[in-house]
Design brief:
single chain; 222 residues; TIM Barrel; 20% strand; binds D-xylitol-5-phosphate
């Protein structure tokens, strides 16, 4: 799979959003990463259905919608998803993850499941036929600007081996949290294919977005 950079829109200053999106379009960004936080599953409240509606008016870049909300199966109907979009559900956020995945598929979106740093890979055992991707949180979900949790680089490699050994090499691995210019290369070597780019890379103060995207792309091509 071609390595992809997914800008994390929560890291972007609202006044810079329009210009930044034009830059991202010029750089052929495939997905924008949208963090939806409910203040219950994670200690933060962020973005929402209205933000998504407004974003759709200014760009046709598909979305990678990361639902950090309790019981997402009860709220999926509040969202409009486009066909090729990825919708990410946390296995820790519901006891009905299989039902939630089914609802995402019914709406025509691509189902992806997310694991918190401490969640074991075995939770995926009975989900592999139903998902197209796994998002590994490499920081605790909820805030930008954190340092990677120790052990996460190895976990990426373990997940790649786990998927390949079970015959699911087609399932993609996305990494989210502290995907810095320093960490991204090794994340890529370990098997990550989609990189959520936030304040540690393309939205850091000392770099312009288009340069940051180019730099990150060159780092993750291994
Ligand atoms: C949470 C977010 C953050 C963040 C990533 O799901 O996606 O992890 O935007 O950006 P960093 O960690 O680079 O600030
Ligand atoms: Zn995220």
């Amino acid at each position: 799979m071609r390595k992809q950079i997914l800008p994390s829109m929560m890291c972007l200053d609202i006044t810079e959003t329009l210009d930044a999106i034009h830059e991202m379009e010029k750089e052929n960004i495939e997905y924008l990463h949208i963090d939806i936080m409910d203040g219950v599953f994670v200690p933060n409240i962020m973005m929402g259905t209205r933000y998504i509606e407004q974003l759709r008016k200014i760009t046709s870049i598909p979305l990678d919608i990361h639902l950090m909300i309790e019981n997402p199966e009860q709220k999926i109907d509040w969202f409009e998803f486009e066909k090729e979009e990825r919708v990410i559900l946390h296995v820790e956020s519901t006891v009905h993850i299989n039902r939630a995945i089914g609802l995402i598929k019914k709406k025509g979106a691509i189902p992806v499941v997310a694991l918190n740093p401490e969640t074991p890979l075995a939770v995926l055992d009975y989900l592999l036929n139903d998902i197209e991707g796994v998002l590994l949180m490499t920081v605790n979900p909820g805030n930008a600007g954190q340092t990677m949790v120790p052990g996460m680089l190895n976990k990426i490699g373990e997940l790649r081996d786990y998927l390949d050994n079970k015959g699911y090499s087609n399932i993609s691995i996305e990494v989210d949290g502290n995907v810095s210019f320093e960490n991204a290369g090794i994340m890529s070597k370990k098997g990550a294919e989609l990189f959520v780019a936030g304040s540690s890379s393309i939205f850091s103060k000392d770099i312009i977005i288009s340069e940051g995207i180019k730099k990150l792309r060159s780092i993750v091509i291994v």
